[in-house]
Amino acid sequence: MGKLTIEELRKIREGARKSRDLREAQGKSRITVHMGTCGIASGARDVMDALLKAIDTHHIEGVLITTSGCAGLCSMEPMATVEFLDQPPVKYVELDAEKIVRILLEHAVEGKIVEEYALAIGSEKMS
Amino acid sequence: MKELALHILDIAENSIRAHADRIVIEIVESEERNELTMTITDNGEGMDDETLSRVMDPFFTTKTVRRIGIGLSLLDQAARQTGGGTTIESTRGKGTRITARFTLDHVDRQPVGDLASTMSILIGGNPSIDFVLRHDRGKDGFLFETRSLREELGDVDLNEPEVLNFIAGLVRERRNLSDDSVTV
Question: Which residue does chain B place closest to A24, by CA atoms?
Answer without folding.
Answer: B160
